[in-house]
Each structure stands twice: as C-alpha cells, then as structure tokens.
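Quick entry, no commentary yet.
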Amino acid sequence: MGLKRIDSRGQMRVVEALLACVVIVLGFTISAHFSNSYLGVRRGEMEDIGINVAGLLGSQSLLEKVLENSTGTWEQDLKSCLESLLPVDTYYELTIKSTLQDKYIANISNIPGESLTADMNTASAQRVITVTLPMAKNETKELDVMLILDRSGSMSEGATGPSDPNKKIYYLKNASKHFVNLLNTSITKVGVTSFSTEASLDEHLTNNSTAVLEAIDSLTPNGYTNIGDAIKLTIDEFVQNGRGDSSWAAVLISDGEANRPYNETYAKWYAEQQAESLSGLGVAIYTIGLGNGTMNFDQTLLKQIQTDGYYYAPSAEVLDEIYELILLDILYHAKFDILVLELTVMRPGTFD
C-alpha cells in the first residue's frame, strides 16, 4: 500500500526522495527493443551502454546530492550525471513515472528538437520497479495530531460478528491508546474528538498522554453517526491550540455511514465540506474504515475526505498495524512507490 503526502509541501519532498531511491535501484538489466526503421544496429554494444550507465548510476552517491540540493536543480544534476557517464555522441531519454501518483515525475533528455535521422543506433528499455526504501525517520519533528473516533451504537457490536466476545469499541480503544503510546509526547501534542448523534471534544491538544488515554477509555458507544460535527470540532481545536511551527494530522475511524445531522444526504455533504476546510488548514487527513465482514461503512466518503491515506480494516484486530503505518507515514518523508522507468539511448552512424 502506498503511503504518501499529497499537499504542496510534500510533493517536492516525495519527488526528490523517489528520485534518490530510483538511483539506488537503477542497476537493472536492459532488455533492448529496436524499431524497424533503424537498420544495421549492433545490439550488444547498445545494451552494454545501457547496462554500464545504469550500474554506474546505481553506485553514485547521487542520493546525497539530490537531497542536499536546496536550489531545486535536481533535474539538471541528474542530467549532468547521465552526460558524464555516456559517450559524447550518445543521445538519451530517461522518463520516470509514479504509478501511485499517476504522473511522470521526471523526463531527462538531451535529444534535440529537430528530427533525428533514421540511421541512429537505438535501444529502449522499460522496467517496473517497486521502491521500498524509506528515508531517514524524522524523530525531532513536532506534531499536532487529533484522533477522531467513532462511538456510535454500532461500535458496541462484535468485531467480526454479533457473537464476538470483544466489541469493536474495545479494539478501537486499545489501538488508539497504542497509537498514543507510540508518540513522543515531549514534542508531540495529541487530542481526541469523538462522534455519535452529536460530536464532542474529549481532550484538547496536549502533551499529557495520560489525559488522552483516559479520554479514550471513557468513550461509550450509542446513537447515530455525525462525522461532520466531529471534523468541525477538530478544526476549531487546531485553530485555537495548534502550534504554527508543527505538522498537523488527523486520524478518523468509523464503522458506519454518516447520517447526522439531519439526514444521510446532508450528513455526507456536510462531512465533505468540513473535511475540505480541515485540509485547507494544512492538516494531513487519514481515514480508517472498520468492517465486520459486511463492509457496512461508507468507503466512498472515507476515501473522499482523506488527503494522505485511506485504510480498510476488515477486522478490528488489524487496527494496531494500521495505526503504526499511519504514524510511519507521518514521520517518514517517503516510503513506497511503484515506478516505471524507460531509458532510451541513441548513437549516430551504422555498424558494419
């Protein structure tokens, strides 16, 4: 599962991190494909060029060069590196596409605008690479995190069925407390809002983890599902008590459909509007859908209101792991992506 920050500040960081990871894993074997319009190509030499360049890039300390570049010239640096490794008479084009972001994040080329002649020796290669190299954990990053917890009546049901000895609220409390215990509360503030028919602010943003744990333990399931008002209270808390120099995040979990205030149609629209306002403050929003085998929660709404990740918990037992993944996503610059790399190398002239 891809974990990523979507806001504008995070995009450049992710691009830089992905490029750095690509450089590390770029030592792939070239599988050449030749256009029929190019004749007289000695396949082995073009393959050798691609393999050698990929291998050298993989051994370069370009990771540090890219990440330490504060002027935003990583693309030119990568281009210079390619040109220093390839023969002077070689044209190239390297494209890197992120499948998770569904867009090209790099296009490095020295091919001129005018058409090249057909007597070029050409080799192209495409490779799909899963990048799973995390960047360094930022343990000194100050965070303000709000937990938005469902305490509607359905949370008193069994985690995977009505006969379960442990109810969903039991697992929600344990997992939420586990998340709080993972936080470095010397630099992190955490607060709690919850919702049923009405929403409540159960604990302000605070460094006092004991107070937060007690607020979570006090939750009692009953009533309907008012997600919108819970998000509104979360907005108010960030505005009033959020620290301007910290990163802001909210984690919302629900097992049902928004149906208050008023009716279901209004409740969903209202929740979407409040989530948009929350995101507008710069808050990273994570959502968790807690199923019980029937998936009777509103996946569509939870996917729409998230900005940084939606997670499906098919049973409450996996909530600990999901909370841990969310915390890792907050603390790490970038972790996972699936990249499509295409490298084309071209040289003038023909071989006998």
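second:
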Amino acid sequence: MVTECTTDPLRRTSLKQKLLIRRGNCDPITVKELDAGPPQPDPSGLCRGYGEARWGSAAQSFGLYFQRLAVLPDGSGVIFEVTSRWFPLPAVRRLPEEGFFFVRADGRGLRRLAGPASRVQANDDEFFPVSPDGLSIALTDLGPDREGHDAHQIFRLDPRSGDRRQLTHHSDPVCCANFLNSRTILFHMPPGGPAFTVKTDGKRPEKELPFLILPGGGRVVSQFEVTGARPGSLYVGFPDRPAVNGGSVSEVFLLDGKHLLQLSDFGRQDTDAFGSFVTRGRVLFPASVNRGENLHEICQIFSVEMLGTHLRQVTHLPWDGRPSTPGCIFYVGGPACNISHLFLDPLTGAVLFPSSCDPLGANPFGEQLFAMRLDGTGLRQLTNLRGMTTDPDGTIHVELPGPAAYTFPRGD
C-alpha cells in the first residue's frame, strides 16, 4: 500500500492511497485507488506526523482507508480491508464500498467479499494470518460473547466464498491470532495472558494452553507460526530480567519437535521484535545488539545456525543520528532508522524488508522496501517513493509505502 498526503501553508490536507501488487521484477500493478477528496482542515497535523514517523504502516494507526492485508501462501491472490470508520480528518469522504476484498496476483478479478468491514481498528496488526493451505484467514472483530455482549473475537474468513464464521465467544479481549496448522488457530486473551487454540471449523470449544516456563523465569511467548514438523523460531520473554535498553529481556529460541534451544543471549528487550525465519539451516531475526559492527545499536538483521553457532550480523544499515533506543521496537516520534518487518522468499531465499535507513544513498526522507540475499549481499532498493519533503512556502509532501505483505512457504 502507498499513502500520499499534502498539507498546504493554511494547514489543509489532501490524502490518497492505493494498493499495488509487484511480482518479481515486473512493474507494479495498481489494484485500487482511494481519494479523501478536496483539502480538509488538519488541526492535528496528521500529514506531518505521518511523515515524521517515516513508517508507512503507521497509516493503519492513523485510521486511514486501507487496513489489514495478506498474500495467499501460493502467491495467487491478495486479501485486503477498506473502511472509513477510523478516518481522522473531519470531512471524510465516505467510500462507496467498504469491507474485505480479494484480487488475483495479476490485478484481475477484484471483488468484494460478503460482510462488512471489521469494527476493530488494525493499529499494529498489519496482516491477516493465513492458513498454510490458503483456505482460511483469521481476523479480529466484535462479536457476541456467551452472554450476548459485544467483545473482541476471532473470526475465520474463507477467501474463496467470503464466508465468515465466529470461532470464539470470550468476554475479555483477544489478540495475536496465528495459525499453528491449517485447522488450528492460536491466540491470546488478554494480551500477554493465557494462550488458547481453536479449530477453524468452529465446532469445538477453545482449549487453554499451559504456559511453558523455563529456568530463570523465562516464559515462552506463543506468537509464532509452525507448519508441520519443521523447526520453527519463537521468542521467549523473561519478565523478571531488566533489559539493558529498557523493559524486560526477550531472546530468540528454536523449537524443533519437543526440543527448545536458546539461540541469542543479548539481554535486550527488542530481540526478535517483529518475527524471525528458519531457512536453509539458519535462523534470521532482528536485533539491535552491538557485536562490534553496530556501534549505535540500531535495528539490524542477524543470522545464526540452528545449533546457535556462527552468529553474524547480516545487514549494516547506517545510523542517521536519531535516538536509537529502543532499537527494533518502533515508536511514533522519530526514532533512528529502523526495520519494520521481515519477509522471506520461499523459492529464492531472498530477504525483503521495509526500512527507513539509507544504505544506498537514495532514501534520505522515509521508508522504502529493500531486498537482499540471505548473506546480506545483493542489497537493492525496490521502491523510490518521496518520503517527507517540505517546499519553501511550507507545503508538506509525504509519500510512504506500507503496510506491505509477502507470500510465505506452504506446509501443514
């Protein structure tokens, strides 16, 4: 998704968004464009705040039209959500069609799926979790609890038929849904609380999972995805251990069957902050530790073998002079350049990520999308958007990508 806004010297803002699909080295295909209409009063400085964040996915937190999205595992289609419910400008232009949409990867076959848009704002939830077989999407929406009162619930959406089914009936908020396999969804209630699983057929009650407690006070944070018997990566929080960069310690672990192996020992709160991958015998994860090559402790990508050996820093993104605390954990207000997500190409092994750093000297004003090989070589910039610039008369221009989604390996 690309968001573009302009604020004139009278503090009136115009805004538009579009969804694009890019396959390989082909030119991007524009799927849908949305326009908020003529310039509107912007007393809160929406456009400036968005530009200064330099984080494209903040468009969701600001309540702009496009919300969550997902790419089907085989790359054949895209699911996305559109709503004006959360739009922050006062004179918002209502959309003729809102809700969930499906489009094929070649940009054809755009259609609206049955049912309204979610009544829960996306915020930091950028993506719809997709089952490994591509036949189910998990989403959070308001639905009746066991007493008939509206509360946050987990729903299953069928991307083929548009059928939507409520799977949970809790009174407390639920969050962080993810697929353990094509028939089982893992979620938390409330955030940081007990973990549950529920089947996608909706015919069986939720099952509470016991916390896995490790020596030294560590607690496994069950926000990870495992497909089949292959090893998977996850992070473990140690709530009783203060981190050197604020908060409590989290580390990345490898889960292989019933075996759990600690791969990092950085003592920081942001290790594996936005996910990790196991591929070709190595685990890739984000961290801001300095092992001699990251003096300013900004967010970088690291790689380690599955037995915890041969740890190395894969990226060497440059520091831009801004405060680097708290490393890989994004906060609105202008942190140091950052990496906001991590994707892996299941066929080529290429790594894709959005970043506001400027490693190639072509990205001084905001986030762009990058790709590289697993070893960090072949780094190239995939987008060339404007970022945030200011004209001599004070007019502000912002153009940022995000959120972005990518396919992932199939399995079950």
